[in-house]
Amino acid sequence: MIYTEALTKEFNRGKNVEPIRAVDSLTLSVNEGEVFGFLGPNGAGKTTTVRMLTSLIAPTSGRAVINNFELGRQDQEIRRCVGILTETPGMYDRLSALKNLTLFARLYNVSDVAGQVEKYLRMLGLWERRFDEAGSFSKGMRQKLAIARALLHEPKVLFLDEPTSGLDPESARLVRDFITELRMQGKTIFLCTHNLDEADRLCDRIGIMKGKLVTVDSPANLRKQLFGHRIVFHLKALHPAWIELVCAFPFVEEAQVFDNRLLVALDQPEEQNPLIVRRLVEAGAEIQFVGELRHNLEDIYLQLIQSQRTTQPAERS
Amino acid sequence: MELSLERIRTIIEKEWAEVFKNKVVIMTIVILPLIFTIMPLLVLTFTNSSVEGGEGVDMPAQFARTCQNMSMGDCMQVFMMNQFLLLFMVMPLAIPIAIAAYSIVGEKTTRSLEPLLATPITTEELLAGKCLAAAIPAILATVGAFLLFLLLTPLTGISLVVQQYIMGPIWLIAVLVVGPLMSIAAVNLAIIVSSRVTDPRAAEQISMVFIVPLIGLMFAQIAGLIVVNLFLMLTMAVTLLAIDFGLIFIGAELFQRETILTRWK
Fold first, then answer.
1. Model ipTM?
2. Does B121 touch chain A (CB under 8 A)?
3. Domain with residues A223-292, CATH architecture
């Protein structure tokens, strides 16, 4: 659905000044119906990428295809098939919610303007407030209105730039639930976010960006790549000798103890867990339960960004 | 180049829906034309009785030569009316500038420009919509004020000669051709300024400079440096037509979506 090849964007800063490379040789593909999370620190090039992919700005080099339309040559077609929720979505504050959406539906040449506007106002719980000026809406309501605006023309691809930024927890949850609903409808969603927990919950795959694309994979695979499988054995009491017992297995990469828990790094826990459990029980351990230590996306993100920082100076030199 | 009239109409409706919620704009559209209509009517009424004979009337000799068969009193009234004719030309200039100057920079400040540019609207459609939305009310207000003025002039008791002059080609070309062309030029310039600056107030103040040439024309006429006649009006119409086309082209060229989006903080 989205395909980019060495997509690069530089911003000129005037004569005799090196241009800033905001996006550097971005190559990625997003499949149809996928929720793709695009993460990265401030200034990593996320918004610039979204602007390029929605044909708001032109790339300096490279190519991109969105819904089979070539960027730079079929920009009008691209604009017709994508929806965008910008980072700070502005509304026509003096106009009602209904009027705001009606105007955009007409600009997108929607066939049933009234029907589509009503559908999304109802879907996002704004129908009762349709005649109120957008300027009187709370931040959460404005965000919902902006999402409705992005969806009016039933886009094949939806770009959401920080959709829950600055929202209170309740509104953020509403927006997240709505994204989940869109995902179930099969929409392709390109989600830029700083909220790692949100990305973890919503995204099929995640791309971490810092000028360049650092990595792309599913959250589960990223965890595995970076931290492997860490199994926690919760014991009623812990005997120091049991650590040596566990470490004696050749497949155990590492074993640590904290409180009454034994943390073991394994590569194939499905096969190796029973062996460890059996040996511990034979040694007299009372196992309360066994679980996998799940690193959150924040750990993954920080690890990758950190490693990017340490490799970059070497690359430059 | 394919232009969608529906999208242009949508932009016009959007602009009007926003602008006409602003009482100051409505006041400008209603009150300014009313003042510019009442003022010449009052002048005609009072000068009619005071310059009967036309003795001692002080007016530029260059203008007096154009009066030909008119009495000095009629000539004086025509001279006075020519100053007000320029006011009728200021009207389609002053009214839309406030609307046009805010049009792009206003969208930037409210952050509504990015979603708007993400729609399939072309730059030409956007600028055409913005331009017409600002120019149409001004042109209609000017024409309306002029019609009111024409209807009420007989009540001032002016002579048939002066009435014929006012309903003659100079005034008609000035109000119906030069005025709208000026309006389109001013609106285009205001939109260009609006897309290059970051503050709505700056856009409005810079755009107001466009009234200066007209004020200059007024003073030049009072000083006797030029005479507003048919030739001047036709020259202005042709020149403005060329300027309008040039400005529409330059406006579309200067409207760089990328620069507007990325340099705006």
1. 0.79
2. yes
3. 2-Layer Sandwich (3.30)
